[in-house]
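Narrative of activities, Objective 1.

The group set out to show that a structural description can be obtained from nothing but a protein's sequence at a throughput compatible with the screening campaign. Below is one input-output pair from the validation batch, recorded exactly as produced.
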Amino acid sequence: MKLLTGAALAAVLQVSYAGAADKVVYQLDWLPGGDKAPIYVCIQNGFCEEEGIEVSIEPGKGSTEAITKMATGTSDIGTAGISALMAAKANEDVPVTAVMSYFNKGPHAFFATKDSGIAEVADVKGKKVATSPFTSSNVFLPLVLDDVGLTEGDITLTKADPAALGPMLMTGSADSVIAWLTNVTVFTNQAKEAGKELVVLPWSAAGLDLYEASVLASDKFLTERPDVAKRFLKAYKKSIEFTRDNPEEAAKAVTAMIPEMSAADVAGGINDAFVLVFNDVTDTDGFGVFEPGRLQATWERVSASQGLEPGALDPESIVDRSYMPES
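Output recorded for this entry:
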């Protein structure tokens, strides 16, 4: 029997994939936006299909919910905060594993308008601050305040629907809001419409530097379908790189599936988000890497923020680097 060449075998496999695509449920940890663009690119631009994978997207309302859906098998793989996974692992040892870093810098920030008088993190003292009930930023708020000599008692904190944060800031019903750096473009546009100038204060500037949004997967998915997981990550990495290099085209992939979104806002969100993906940390460690020292430092911040014993978790135990595609 004649053996197939490498190219011919690849073609046969590709046909096989196309004929019987492996279904993967991808879990969002938040509302669709620029930072979520790669999964839409993977679907719309055919990168997932090339790997023989058919993806459906599960909506999410925070990292805790996303991790729960993966732990229970509702979803196979998706993005969520590694800080939330660390806390969940320390408390319950949930069957979810981190397989690739996405944001290698924390996205948390205070947003204010210039007329609020807030020019640095310490200036939130005595101010009205609004946040979403679900954001992982709330966990780190006491730490970033402590880093500048404040406590939660020094601010008036209100929780509101995420969509209400921008209007609250622009109308002055909040002096500052807590949001992710992925929202800079949206808030900047809202400020311009209100005739105001936006001030953005990243918490990393106050010393809160850590891994955050990461690609997590159900242990069941990894154990039962490891090849599918590897092929998905290969396609997803390609989608991330395409999004970085073609933000406007990537935005079209999002709006093709969610037409009510503005392509300009999505493209702006991509540019906002990708400074958390590709930066000096990426230059040093590489894309998607969990560097052991930075991983340990992240756990130290998480344990401090949630009153967990530092010895309650070995952060290395929650990651599996073997699914990462080769560079």
